[in-house]
Specification:
heterodimer; A: 313 residues; mainly alpha; Serine Threonine Protein Phosphatase 5, Tetratricopeptide repeat; 2 domains; 15 helices; B: 155 residues; Arc Repressor Mutant, subunit A; elongated
Chain lengths: 313, 155
């Protein structure tokens, strides 16, 4: 991405000759404007209410942004899903609906893709911190930065025996505290320290991930990421009893990004380690709440209840 | 109607909508997948006549979830609250981009993305859903108009 005339072709250079100063003025005038993905989401009404309202006000007052969005929409139609992709997506959905019997083992995870979620979050942090004076590099749109991560279908690791709640591998995400690091991402020691553990976790090397996350608990005892992913790592390594303490820690931190996940995975860990009463109580709370785990928790609670009331041979 | 039949019937509309929001195929596929999984969970209570609207709402809500947690929005909101006044009055070129008589919206967007945002033609194609060839054509047309306007101004 470049605004340097040297990067333009001859036709462009000729047409814009003498207008460089005006272009620079235009860039400065709009350097603080919203990123394209935000404008696009606003037009689709796909933003949280507060941001939607702010963006609505911005669009109402900015002819420039309105023209940009209008032009984007006037471009080509979104291409269709080709046949192969349609089949691949169907297989993924079909697999996941069969494996995710609890219905809550998967949540959308904008930044759990391509094995580079953490790197992507770093990219976001870098791009944000570096773009105070110019338009954001929107080729990354929308760079995966949401906090809720999705395990791909293949990552549903724990089979669901009769009385064992199924769960999926939680994707990597970061809390707002980690994301709101103000400096360049490369200067964020927490993210740098976290990365090896995350890499091991992502690669499925749960023994190494356990050791690395455990080491981080000393250095970052108040990190919800460390506590939560240590718990998840242990669950994925079939150490359900060992997952309870770090997941309880994660839950106790009351971080809005992780609270529901911590409660859900803690309930599963409790159930899988025989602490059914605690698990049921927690599932009951999740079921009564409004989180994305609600449906799965209600279903799991009913299954546990049914299992308890079914006479055993 | 069976779940797979519903998928076949509506997947294209859902995917296109998701892609129109994200412009990233991987994320659009994830949104689409999530919407159909939600449909599968609620299948018993969904009237097929509600589709694909119900699915599109799921996509929109999932996108909302994503944004709710994104640092971008927090920082943008902060920036908006303390946004400084524009650094200068709009130069004639900005007014021409916005109001040039023969410019269509897509020309304006291509001009903005190319010369203000500094995007390559390929990046503009990704953003707009146009082909690179189409982007090049729109830019050439817009520059031709600009030359005319520029010439008139200089005369």
């Amino acid at each position: 991405m470049s605004t340097r005339p040297e990067d333009w072709d001859q036709d462009e250079q000729q047409a814009l000759s003498g207008l460089e100063d005006q272009l620079e003025t235009i860039r400065r005038r709009h350097a603080g404007g919203p990123p394209i993905e935000l404008l696009r989401a606003a037009r689709a009404g796909a933003l949280p209410d507060e941001v939607q309202a702010a963006m609505g006000a911005h669009l109402a007052g900015s002819a420039w942004s309105r023209a940009l969005v209008e032009g984007l929409e006037a471009g080509g139609d979104a291409p269709a899903l080709d046949r192969l992709s349609e089949e691949r997506l169907w297989k993924r959905i079909d697999t996941e609906r069969r494996t995710s019997s609890s219905g809550a083992s998967r949540r959308w995870a904008p930044w759990a893709y391509g094995g580079a979620a953490l790197a992507a979050s770093l990219l976001i942090a870098v791009s944000l911190s570096r773009n105070d004076g110019r338009q954001p590099p929107t080729a990354q749109v929308p760079a995966p930065a949401g906090p809720v991560a999705v395990a791909p279908p293949s990552a549903a690791v724990a089979p669901a025996p009769a009385l064992a709640l199924a769960f999926g591998k939680p994707g990597i995400k970061l809390s707002a505290a980690a994301l709101t690091w103000r400096g360049a991402a490369a200067e964020n020691p927490f993210l740098a320290d976290l990365e090896p553990a995350v890499a091991a976790y992502r690669e499925g090397d749960y023994a190494r991930a356990d050791a690395l996350f455990t080491a981080l608990t000393t250095r970052y005892p108040r990190s919800v990421e460390v506590a939560f992913f240590l718990g998840a790592t242990r669950m994925l390594g079939d150490n359900f009893a060992g997952a309870i303490a770090p997941l309880s820690d994660a839950l106790a931190m009351q971080d809005p990004t992780f609270a529901d996940d911590a409660a859900w995975y803690l309930a599963v860990a409790e159930q899988r380690s025989g602490r059914v009463t605690e698990a049921r109580r927690r599932l009951e709370q999740l079921c009564a709440g409004g989180s994305a785990f609600k449906a799965g928790a209600c279903d799991a609670e009913q299954r546990l209840l049914a299992a308890e009331t079914t006479p055993r041979p | 109607m069976e779940f797979e039949a519903l998928y076949r019937q509506h997947v294209q509309a859902v995917f296109r909508f998701a892609l129109s929001i994200t412009r990233r195929r991987d994320l659009a596929e994830d949104l689409t997948s999530d919407a159909f999984l939600a449909l599968h969970r609620e299948l018993a209570s969904i009237d097929p006549s509600q589709l694909p609207g119900w699915l599109l709402t799921v996509v929109r809500n999932r996108a909302r979830d994503m944004w709710r947690h994104r640092l971008v929005e927090e920082r943008y909101a902060e920036r908006e609250r303390r946004a400084p006044a524009p650094v200068a009055d709009p130069p004639p070129l900005e007014n021409w981009i916005l109001t040039g008589a023969d410019l269509k919206p897509v020309h304006r967007a291509c001009l903005m993305l190319r010369y203000v945002w500094g995007m390559s033609r390929a990046e503009i194609a990704t953003e707009t859903g146009l082909s690179e060839t189409q982007v090049k054509g729109h830019l050439q047309y817009a520059l031709t108009l600009l030359r005319k306007a520029h010439g008139v101004r200089e005369a």
